[in-house]
Amino acid sequence: MRKDLMQRMSRLMVVATVVIPAAALAQFGGTPPVELSEARLTTMAPTMQVAGTVVSRSDAFLSAEVDGRLIEVADIGSRVEAGDVVARIEDTTLNLRARELESEITRAEARLKFLEAELRRFERLAETNLAAASQIDQTLSERDIAASDLIVARVRLEQVEDQIDRTRITAPFPGVVAERVAQVGERVAAGTRVLRMVNPDSLEVVARAPLNYYRFVQPGDELAIMVAGELLHAPLRTTVSVGDEARHVFELRLDLDARLPVGQTVRVTVPTADVREVLAVPRDALVLRGDGIAVFIVDEDNQARRIRVTTGIGEGDWIEVRGPIQEGDRVVIRGNERLRQGQEVSIRES
To answer: Is pTM beyond 0.70 here?
Structure first.
C-alpha cells in the first residue's frame, strides 16, 4: 500500500515538472507579442484646465405686462414652441372696457357723419345767401372736433386691445418651462416674474481663465472639454476680455453640440503659452519604473531597446518626450510592461 502511494506521488511530481516549465515558457519565454506606434513631430502648447458651466443661450424669466389675477400657468417641464401661451391673466375688466370704447367709436362715427352732412347743406345754402358764414365755421369746427374724438376713441380701443393681448404671456423661443415663480390665483403687477423658460437645445459653455492667457486663444479655436470622464471638443465662439480689481479673468464662450443638462460643470483646457513643435509618443508607450521613465524602441531586428526619457507637455493621448529618441522610431505601446533590454519581440497588428 505504501509502495503504491509513493509511486503515485512520483508520477505527480513528474507531471508537475513537465507542466510548470511549459506554463512558464508560455508566460515568459519565446518572443512576446507587442503593438507599436511611431514617435512623431507635432505641435503642442502647455495647457491648464479651468472650470466651466453648461448654459443655455435662451434662458429668460417671463414677467406679467399688465396687472391682474393669474388664471393659467404652464406646468414645470412643459415643452412649448415660440408663440405658445404659457400663462394667462384675467382679462374681464379689459374686455368690458373694450366694449365701452367700441360704443364710443360708434357714437363718434355717427356724430361725425351728421356734422359732415350739415356742413355740405350749409355750403349749398351759402351759395344762395341763405346761410351765414358763421354757421359754416361753427359746423366745420364741430366736424373737426368730432373727427378728433373718433381718432382718440380708436386709439384708446387699440391700447385696451394691446393690454388684452398682453394678458397672454407667450414663449419668446422654443424651450421648456423650468420654474414657476407665481401660481394660479395670485394677483400680479406689471413686471412681476411669473415663470422661467430655458431652451435646452441651444447650449454653450461659459468658463473663465486668468487674463495672462488671453492672448493664447482666438475665436474659432477648438478647445478640449472634459465632462463626466468624457472628452469633447468645442469651437470657441467668443472671448470677453473684461476683468476687474477683484477678478483678473476673462470669459470664454464655446458652442456646444452635445446634449448636456443646463448647469453641468465641465473642465475646459486652455493653452498657457504659444504652440511649439515637439517630439511626442503615445502615453501608453511610457514605462514607469523605480529608476525613472522609459520607452521601449524596436529596431530592425525586432529587438526591444529601453531608453530613458523625460516628459513635457501633453495633448490628449500624446505626450512630449526628450531623450535619445527620433522621429519615426517604433515605440511599444502594448506589451511593454515586462519587456527586457535586448529582448526579441513579435509585432502584433493593432
So the answer is: no
Let me know: does 83 contact 135? Beta carbons within 8 Å: no
Instruction: Look at residues 144, 162, 197 and tell me which one is the last residue of a structural domain.
Output: 197
DSSP conformation letters of 192-228: -EEEEEE-TTSEEEEEEEEGGGGGG--TT-EEEEEET
Range of the domain at 193: 63-197
What is the CATH number for 206? Answer: 2.40.30.170
pLDDT digits (tens, 9 = 90+) for 310-333: 998 888 789 999 999 999 999 999
Q: What is the mean pLDDT of residues 51-55?
A: 96
**Are 315 and 341 part of one and the same domain?**
yes
Q: Which position has the grid cell 415643452?
A: 79
Average pLDDT score, the chain: 87
160 to 85, 94, 96, 175: CA distances (angstroms):
19, 6, 10, 30
Domain end among 251, 273, 295: 273
